[in-house]
Amino acid sequence: MKIHNTTGGRIFDAANYVFLSLIGIITLLPFIYVIAGSFANEAEITRRAFFVWPEQFTLGSYEYIFSTPAFTRALVTTILVTAVGTLVQLAFTVTMAYPLAKKTLRGRQVILSLVVFAMVFSGGMIPTFLLVKDLGLLNSYWALILPAAINPFSLIIIKNFFQELPQELEESAKMDGATEIGILWRILLPLSKPVLATFALFYAVGIWNDFMSPLLYLSDNSKWTLQMYLRQVTASSDLLGTGNVDPNYIPPEQGIKFAVIVVATLPILIFYPFLQKHFAKGMLIGSVKG
Amino acid sequence: MSQLTDALASNIGHGQGPGTDAGKSSKPRKPPKVPRGKFSVHFAHYKWLYLLLAPGVVYFAVFRYAPMYGVSIAFKDYVPFLGVNGSPWVGTQHFQDFFSNPDFPRLLGNTLILAFLNLGIAFPLTIVLALLLNEVRLSILKRTVQTLVYIPHFLSWTIVASLSFLLFALDFGPLFLFLNNVMGTDIDFLSDPNWFRPLIVLQEIWKNTGWGTIIFLAALATVDQDQYEAAIIDGAGRFRRVWHITLPGIRSTIIVMLILAIGQMLNTGFEQIYLMTNALNRSVADVFDTYVYFVGITQGAYSYSTAVGLFKSLVGIVLIFGTNALAKRFNQSGLF
């Protein structure tokens, strides 16, 4: 299209560019403040209203949190649960998606309908909680992984992806005597790496960020994940009128809150370039292809 | 995360439903060399596939369908050692209790007010932001702004709440100081019930407005560019082009997203509300989702809270079908 610039158009463009840049910066400001605050000392945090760079650079807050067993335990736990959980959830999803991609499989249609039905209706918080309790999974990390093992949406996208791979690949492998499992493992999975990476990230972010499951299922505070720990550290005790807080807990100094937020955010920010790329793509797959 | 999933899930539903694609069977591929007839023969042929299918089917049976069956305790008096099956039926007792409870109008009000604030403020803002981004011809600026505004979507509500606690912290939080300075007041935003809703909407805007533009930007990219040229020749200015071409061009997307948003109205987001709830703002903060938690999990009224949750899901389903029917009546393509 030809670029046509009236004066009004140019003023609008300029205003729009300035406005959007401001929106971008404002979105980022809370992070910058928190990162700066995590490297500042206590006096500076309480004295200066807002800053993007500490006057006196200190690692004190980080040294403190990494010296407390509660924090390091929560961090290690969360990393392990996220890693194991992502693998388990991806395995469940892929193994179910592959047979469902075979149009000749009997019962496939019934199962697919039931999967879609589960996208619309769910038992809700209490029946799910009671189930997890009856299965003896309370205070087990499996309670953070298994109830969300298959996201129906991810399952259907992966199924559709398998369905569109060329049939010939599988047929030639079958002639060479490969079993279905062999075909999935040696042929389909290597071809699906980008898709699998996308959904691995999807699951990983879900587990890392999950607050509701640990709140519901982990009452033992020595098992808390990072999000639970973060909640305890940042909500000042006088505001906590509700639920799950360790009564022996002493509110920490401000700098520590800043540092814990940074640590909890860091993995998301590190993976953000991948997240943005893959998630945006996933979003569009969902809306365009169906 | 769940919002994203819901939006995506329903977008699948929008096209050819995932459940129907098999029935549609695209182009007839070469005839399957599968033994027809007896199931046992079919099963033997496909035993590896059925083996792979098993864990997923067990998952859905146990973690998705068993809780659906468990919803029956909404009509029972659930006693843990009697289990879901053994507990005695009480009919609609829990629903009657809930509707006659003074908590009910309060919860309904709180939930609806938050829902309408989000629909009325956050939803249009998403469209406006998408339109503004769409007008940017400088692609580096567009990409940079997009990159920045998408970030908060990936952060947990715990982080969003924690950031809010720091920014609005009593006596030293930057926004506490700034806003009180501007207004000449001394308000503790985190505990003042009047500020609970603005805070929730603000969080929602910060976290999800940017990300929400993706769907609209994708729709905007499909608007026929020739129409703009024709409009320019006819002398239409920037705003008239947006009003008469761009907005009508993405109308169906707006309607689909609106139907989805209305269907999700009562889902106020458990984590967000729970994290921002405290002893001082309970009167305005309690919504269905958090009420189910407080009454069910912390007080152990399992049957009653399941009834509350069931009521909420049923209203949600009515809402989504209702808006869909309404959209169709106004001659718009609905969601399904």
UniProtKB/TrEMBL annotation, chain A:
Keywords: Cell membrane, Membrane, Transmembrane, Transmembrane helix, Transport. It comes from the Bacteria. The chain crosses the membrane at residues 12-36, 74-98, 110-129, 141-162, 183-208, 256-275. It holds the Pfam family BPD_transp_1. It is found in: Cell membrane. It is a multi-pass membrane protein. The keyword Transmembrane applies. CDD domains: TM_PBP2 (cd06261). Its main location: membrane. Residues 75-275 form the ABC transmembrane type-1 domain. Belongs to the binding-protein-dependent transport system permease family. This is Protein LplC. It comes from Pseudarthrobacter scleromae. The lineage of its organism: Bacteria, Bacillati, Actinomycetota, Actinomycetes, Micrococcales.
